Amino acid sequence: MITVIIGGSGSGKSVIIKHIMGLFKADRGEVRVFGTDITPLGRNEMIPIRMRFGMLFQHAALLDSLNIFENIAFPLRERTKLSRKEIKERVEEICERVAITEMMYRSTGEISEGQKKRVGLARAIITKPEVLIYDEPTTGQDPIRTRQVDDMIVEAQEMFKITTIVISHDMASTFRVAHRIAMLNEGKILAYGTPNDLMSSADPQVHHFIFAGSGEE
């Protein structure tokens, strides 16, 4: 399933993700991840939980000092005890599945922004996470690249059968990829449901956010 979290600037989209991954500590209440309340857990206790997540950052966040292969292999070398042979085999498999095999040994400066997104995806899923998170994946993209990113998100979810969370303020992108949408407002979930549920919402705040600027209000 693909769940998209939407909301205006300062609504709490990034904060909720940081709480889920244990990067922020809740002031009160519980944060349950995979059935476990992570609020009392320390840094070392959070490592195995974070290993169950993959994250694709807004600008891919690739390491310029490493080539594509090394960027993708990096999480395996840092977090696992796999042999060099096993790492090579897994990287080659992932590269083939996300269609970047031919650029595996190029530098990050030799590939396009769209290709960097695919490399970032390969790195995010190389550890076989249970949940994949995209942070504003279409920000700064033109309409053609936005559509390509949307297609990549849908293809990855279908190919790897992975629970997917997308942080976005792009309504066109949201309605192309989402199975469920959660709308945040001032740190609280104002609405949650299918795209059709939110499209037909009688809540004026939900209606305004979805249709603002579209000329359909």
By DSSP (H or I, 4+ residues per run), the number of helices equals 9
CATH top level class name of the largest domain = Alpha Beta
Proportion of residues in helical segments: 40-55%
Overall radius of gyration: 18 Å
Query: What is the level-2 CATH architecture name of the largest domain?
Result: 3-Layer(aba) Sandwich
Categorize the overall geometry: globular
In CATH terms, the superfamily of the largest domain is P-loop containing nucleotide triphosphate hydrolases
Structural domain count? 2
Q: Give the strand order, joined by hyphens, for the main sheet.
A: 4-5-6-1-7-8
Order of helices and strands: EHEEHEHHHEHEHEEHH
CATH topology of the largest domain: Rossmann fold
Task: Report mean pLDDT, rounded to a whole number.
Answer: 90
Strand fraction band? 15-25%
User: What is the CA-CA span between the terminal residues?
Assistant: 29 Å
What structural class should be given to the helix and strand makeup? alpha/beta
Oligomer: single chain
Sheet of most strands: 6 strands, mixed
Number of strands: 8
Unreliable parts: none
Report on the structure:
The strands form 2 sheets. The protein has a 6-stranded mixed β-sheet, sandwiched between helices. The protein has a two-stranded antiparallel sheet with strand order 2-3. The model has no long low-confidence stretch (mean pLDDT 90). The chain has 2 domains: 1-52 and 130-217, P-loop containing nucleotide triphosphate hydrolases (Rossmann fold), CATH 3.40.50.300; 60-128, no CATH class. It is α/β, with parallel strands linked by helices and 217 residues long. Helices cover 43% and strands 16% of the residues.
